[in-house]
């Protein structure tokens, strides 16, 4: 999906007699779209407290447990791949509504599952919703956001993701605490782990009903030939700008574009994938290869392997989630001031250092007869501080900034195709890391596993330094024109 219809900051701030009212509307529409991010986070994090209960309930092997956890990511890859084209064809809002329904059905079905196959089916359905939300929610926000605060508003999506993760951890901790453990019986005679999933239906319903009150984006409406509706929406977003000129600007960009297609990412004069797409793929994959979702998906398992009790491990997850939320606010404060590239560089290096400290703490710990690590008080504290430091560096850098960059860096001509490809790569990288962690934990241990993730942190630092350009303060149209000009100069 291309984003030619975003509002310029001067158009917003120069609007007479109601700039605050326009900003209020933009914030409300952005918040509703970002609720998809909340569900993205909740659905991704709820599995964290149920891994052991699922293994017991379904009598799963290590590989089977990994697939139970990672199955959502297969759906996420498919959802991310098709979301852009579906939204270009039917509109952003209708596809978001379908996404909300998929979240609801997935939550109900996952909690009601009686076997691995049934559970995996509903988790894949939830993954479709997560993948679609990961693409559509920031794209919707970008299409209605003024350029001067586009980074901050797009980061709202990541903030809601981490709040969703945090609430999933709290949800798991409270339910497991009340029942005795995730495997014990809770309300109405159902297992506690089932209620952990069923609780997601509340925010899913809220997302569905609030979506009924937001408009379609102006850019899609112009593309669909509904210019009168586009004028109405633009009028709700700002009051004293020349709406006809803005419609003409959107239309002129559309006239330069062909129907969105995956072939758009191939340079016609070279027959090769556009370098910007390779840069986006690198960002998408490296965000996952530092192992962030090992902490969020397997946090309880990880800390129990390190010698913590289930209750202590779940409480540690809540602390991790709190750190994640706080430092995402830091990202919102810095992204439009400091820029995207510096945050990515600092974050990558900081993650590598923290992961190295975790690798040392885990790698030097003694192994008990039960197989869990026996960490002394000092090394246990080092591991906890390093884990939260790792999350902090991720939360103000690669967590939100990667998605912001992907929404900004591609030209209008192939933004939809590039987002689809990078979205698939991100979710497949997530799947790879999630599937391999239980196997790595069993065969090489926590220390070496985290040493591998630390190495990829250094790779990420070098990659950003060499291949990523700053996008702060530049309009999407300006970057599109520069990219097109670059393509033209490369032609023989």
Automatic annotation (TrEMBL):
CDD domains: MFS_XylE_like. Residues 29-472 form the Major facilitator superfamily (MFS) profile domain. The keyword Transmembrane helix applies. Keywords: Cell membrane, Membrane, Sugar transport, Transmembrane, Transmembrane helix, Transport. Pfam families: Sugar_tr. One of its GO terms (molecular function) is transmembrane transporter activity. GO terms for cellular component: plasma membrane. It is found in: Cell membrane. Signal peptide: none annotated. The chain crosses the membrane at residues 23-43, 63-83, 95-114, 120-141, 153-175, 195-214, 276-299, 311-334, 346-368, 380-406, 418-441, 447-468. The keyword Transmembrane applies. It comes from the Bacteria. SUPFAM superfamilies: MFS general substrate transporter. It is a multi-pass membrane protein. InterPro entries: MFS_dom, MFS_sugar_transport-like, MFS_Sugar_Transporter, MFS_trans_sf, Sugar/inositol_transpt, Sugar_transporter_CS, XylE-like. Belongs to the major facilitator superfamily. Sugar transporter (TC 2.A.1.1) family. This is SP family sugar:H+ symporter-like MFS transporter.
């Amino acid at each position: 999906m291309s984003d030619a219809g975003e509002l310029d900051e001067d158009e917003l701030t120069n609007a007479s007699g109601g700039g605050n009212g326009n900003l209020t509307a933009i914030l409300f529409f952005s918040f509703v779209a970002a609720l998809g991010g909340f569900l993205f986070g909740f659905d991704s994090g709820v599995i964290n407290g149920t891994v052991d209960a699922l293994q017991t309930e379904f009598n799963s092997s290590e590989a089977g447990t990994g697939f139970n956890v990672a199955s959502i990511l297969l759906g996420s890859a498919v959802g991310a791949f098709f979301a852009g084209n579906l939204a270009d064809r039917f509109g952003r809002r209708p596809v978001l509504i379908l996404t909300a329904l998929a979240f609801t059905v997935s939550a109900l079905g996952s909690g009601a599952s009686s076997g691995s196959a049934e559970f995996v089916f509903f988790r894949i359905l939830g993954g479709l919703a997560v993948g679609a939300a990961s693409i559509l929610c920031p794209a919707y926000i970008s299409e209605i956001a003024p350029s001067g605060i586009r980074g901050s508003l797009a980061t709202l999506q990541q903030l809601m993701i981490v709040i969703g993760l945090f609430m999933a951890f709290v949800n798991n901790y409270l339910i497991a605490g009340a029942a005795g453990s995730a495997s014990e019986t809770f309300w109405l005679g159902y297992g506690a782990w089932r209620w952990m999933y069923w609780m997601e239906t509340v925010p899913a319903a809220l997302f569905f009903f609030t979506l009924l009150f937001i408009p379609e984006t102006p850019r899609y409406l112009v593309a669909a030939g509904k210019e009168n509706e586009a004028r109405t929406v633009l009028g709700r977003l700002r009051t004293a700008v020349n709406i006809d000129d803005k419609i003409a600007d959107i239309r002129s960009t559309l006239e330069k574009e062909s129907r969105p297609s995956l072939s758009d990412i191939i340079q016609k004069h070279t027959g090769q994938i556009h370098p910007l797409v390779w840069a986006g793929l690198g960002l998408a994959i490296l965000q996952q290869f530092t192992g962030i979702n090992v902490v969020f998906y397997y946090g309880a398992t990880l800390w129990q392997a390190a010698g913590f009790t289930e209750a202590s491990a779940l409480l540690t997850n809540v602390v991790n989630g709190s750190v994640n939320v706080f430092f995402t606010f830091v990202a919102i404060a810095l992204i439009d001031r400091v820029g995207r590239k510096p945050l990515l560089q600092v974050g990558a290096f900081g993650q590598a250092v923290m992961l190295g400290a975790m690798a040392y703490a885990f790698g030097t710990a003694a192994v008990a007869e039960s197989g869990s690590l026996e960490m002394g008080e000092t090394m246990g504290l080092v591991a906890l501080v390093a884990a939260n430091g790792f999350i902090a560096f991720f939360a103000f850098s690669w967590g939100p900034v990667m998605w912001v960059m992907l929404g900004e860096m591609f030209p209008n001509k192939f933004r939809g195709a590039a987002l689809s490809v990078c979205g698939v790569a991100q979710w497949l990288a997530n799947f790879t890391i999630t599937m391999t962690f239980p196997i790595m934990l069993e065969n090489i241990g926590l220390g070496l596993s985290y040493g591998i993730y630390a190495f990829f942190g250094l790779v990420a630092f070098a990659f950003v330094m060499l291949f990523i350009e700053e996008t702060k303060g530049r309009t999407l149209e300006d970057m599109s024109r520069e990219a097109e000009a670059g393509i033209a100069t490369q032609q023989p």
